[in-house]
Design brief:
There is one protein chain. The protein is α/β, with parallel strands linked by helices. It is built from twelve helices and ten strands. Helix 5 links the parallel strand 5 (109-112) and strand 6. The longest helix has 19 residues, at 247-265.
């Protein structure tokens, strides 16, 4: 996995926010193999929330990750395994945290949280992996809600961490009052005060880096305002980070895929599945000539 994209979020000088521009994706080498495109491990799902890990996994696969594994609690493993696309592997997480840690350590990027729940077991998993894993982690959904009660764990973490909250989750993380008056300043202040990259989702999603730089996204539409869209973003982001791309690239492509889906199906009738299926077309638009 390339260092440059992560380094871009840690170095440089603070400055005003810039509009996110269409990214440029390099063509793959003819001799490339799956190991060149990263291993993504997704810890997600719980009883009653078996769609979230599947949405995230499908987006990670469409995002080009070399290997995608979904770790999900044993009690919902049969459901998640049946629902997930064939291209992603599904692994029942045992009670042993040591075994979970060993599995997670084999990945290049972790995505933690979609549909995971906030029970004591899930909390132990989230806090343990944040403390013990040295590869990049994307934290979403229930992972964020758990972190909001233990923000000191984030402050102690030295490895790259990306948080992807909507405004309600961000309020729990930061203690701010809703509605957020100045999304840009709020995101920038949080990312600067904690060792993380913050993706504050919503209209004109803000990506704030720890060095003070921000990107404001220009793609996306109201048809994406539905359950599962955030899971798709998190999965796509993990896949692209595993390939050495930047956080804002994932945000832009997620929005562009939503725009392509809306153009075909309309904003009211489009689904998150339509968005995920449009990801390859959005990426194809961005490939180098």
């Amino acid at each position: 996995m390339k260092e440059t994209a992560w380094q871009a979020g840690r170095d440089g000088k603070s400055g005003p926010a810039a509009a996110a521009e269409r990214p440029c994706l390099a063509h793959r080498r003819q001799e490339a193999h799956k190991g060149d495109f990263g291993k993504v491990f997704i810890l997600a799902g719980s009883r009653g929330f078996t769609g979230a890990p599947c949405m995230a996994a499908r987006a990670a696969v469409r995002g080009g990750a070399g290997l995608v594994t979904v770790g999900t609690p044993e009690e919902v493993y049969p459901i998640v395994a049946a629902k997930c696309c064939d291209e992603a592997m599904v692994w029942p997480v045992p009670d042993s945290y040591k075994i979970l840690l060993e599995k997670a350590e084999s990945a290049d990027v972790l995505l933690i949280g979609p549909g995971l729940g906030q029970a004591a077991r899930a909390e132990n998993w989230v806090l343990g992996l944040l403390s013990d894993i040295t590869c990049p982690i994307v934290l979403d959904a229930d992972g964020l809600n758990i972190l909001s009660r233990h923000i000191d764990v984030l402050d102690k973490r030295s490895a790259p961490t990306v948080l992807t909250p909507h405004e309600g989750e961000f309020a729990r993380l930061s203690g701010c009052v809703l509605p957020i008056g100045d999304r840009l300043s709020a995101a920038r202040d949080f990312a600067g005060g904690h060792p993380c990259t913050l993706v504050l989702k919503g209209h004109r999603t803000v990506t704030a880096y720890p060095d003070g730089r921000c990107r404001v996204n220009t793609t996306g539409n109201p048809g994406m305002a539905r359950g599962g869209s955030g899971d798709a973003l998190a999965g796509l982001m993990a896949a692209l980070l595993a390939q050495g791309e930047d956080v804002s690239t994932a945000v832009w492509l997620h929005g562009r895929a939503g725009d392509l889906a809306a153009a075909e199906k309309g904003e009211r009738g489009m689904t998150v599945g339509d968005l995920i299926e449009a990801i390859p077309y959005a990426m194809k638009e961005c490939e180098e000539e």
